[in-house]
Amino acid sequence: MTQRNIWIMGNWKTNPVMTQDASNLAQQLAGAVSKQTVQHKQMMIAPGVIHASTVATHCSEQLWLMGQDCCAYTQTQGAYTGDISAAQLAELGAKAVLVGHSERRQYHQESSELLTQKIKHVTASGMLAVLCVGESLSEREAKTHFDVVAQQITSVLQSVTLTAAQIVIAYEPVWAIGTGRTASPEQAQEVHAAIRVLLAKFDTEIAEKTQILYGGSMNPKNASALLSMSDIDGGLIGGASLKADDFLTICQAA
Ligand code: PEP
Predict the structure, then answer these.
(1) Which of 4, 33, 74, 199 could lock 78 by a disulfide, CB 3.0 to 4.6 Å apart?
(2) Cβ atoms < 10 Å from Cβ of 224
C-alpha cells in the first residue's frame, strides 16, 4: 500500500490587508519549519497575489508557496486584465495552484471547461493543480453529494490526462467552508474513499498516489480526528491558517 505524506495548505484568501502582516505570518511559519517543530509534513501557503512576492522570500522546500487561482486564457502572457498567469506564479516560485475553489465557482461562475483550461496551464508550468470539489448544503440534504463530487472530478479528468504528481483533490463541502460546521471524520472519509474509487477508473496509480485533502472549518480541535482517517491525506485550511499557532497545531496534529 502506498504511504502518502500529510499535506497541509493554508488558503489566505483576501487576508490580511497589510503586506507586513502577511510577511509576519509567513515568517512565523518559516521559523517553525526551520526549528523542525513540524516534521514529515508538507506545508503550503497561498497568500493573495499582492503579497506573494514578499511571502515568497520566507518560503522553502518545507514551506511551499501556492497560488489561489490563475488565468484560464493563457499559460504565459497576454491581454487579460486583472488575471495572473500560471507562468507568472511559477516564476514567483509557486509549486501549486488552487483551481475551482467554491468561492471562485460561486462568485465567478467558473465552469468545468474553464477549470480544465486552468489545470492545463498550471501543469504545463510545472506546478501541481489542487482541484477543489464539494457539494452545497442542499445537495448534501438531497443525498446527491457523491454524484456532485464525481461529476466535478470526471468533467475535468476526462478532458486532460494527468499523473498523481500533477493533481491534488481537495474535498471541501461548501456547507463547511467558513461556517464552523465541519464534516465528521466519517462523513469526510466516505467521500474521500469514493473519490479514490472514482480515480481508479481513470488510472490505478493516480488512485493510489493522489493526495486527497479535506477542507471546511478544519481547526486545531478537529484536525487530529479528521487527519487520522485512512483516505484523508491532509487539509486545506482557510480561517485557521491566518493564525500561525492554529495552523502549526493543525500541522502537528496529523
Ligand atoms: C477554504 O476556504 O478552503 C476553507 C476550508 O476555509 P475554512 O477553513 O475557513 O472553512
Answers:
(1) 74
(2) 14
From the CA of 134, how far away is ligand 1's center (Å)? 12
Cα of 194 to ligand 1 centre, how many Å? Answer: 22
As beta bridge partners, residue 7 has: 42, 234
172, 181, 219, 247, best to mutate for ligand 1 pocket (most atoms within 8 Å of CB): 172
C-beta of residue 174 within 8 angstroms of C-beta of residue 134: yes
**Could you tell me the CA-to-CA distances from 136 to 12, 36, 112 in Å, in that order?**
22, 38, 16
Per-residue buried b or exposed e for 92-129, using 16+ beta carbons within 10 Å of the residue's own CB: bebbbbbbbbbbbbeeeebebebbbbbbbbbbebebbb
Round to whole Å and give the CA distance between 109 and 158.
Answer: 21
Specify the long-range contacts of residues 77-85, CB closer than 8 Å, at least 24 apart. 84/49, 85/121
The whole-angstrom separation of Cα 130 and Cα 119 is 8
Exposed, middle or buried: residue 160 (CB in 10 Å: 0-12, 13-18, 19+)?
middle
Res 1: pLDDT: 54
Q: Is the pTM of this model over 0.90?
A: yes
Ranges of the chain whose pLDDT falls below 50: none
Selecting among 58, 101, 145, 192, the annotated active-site residue is: 101
Q: How far from 105 is each of 22, 87, 109, 239, CA to CA, in Å?
A: 25, 22, 5, 19
Cell of 77: 502572457
Question: How close is the Cα of 176 to the center of ligand 1, in Å?
Answer: 8
Whether the link from the prior residue into 16 is cis, omega within 30° of 0, is yes
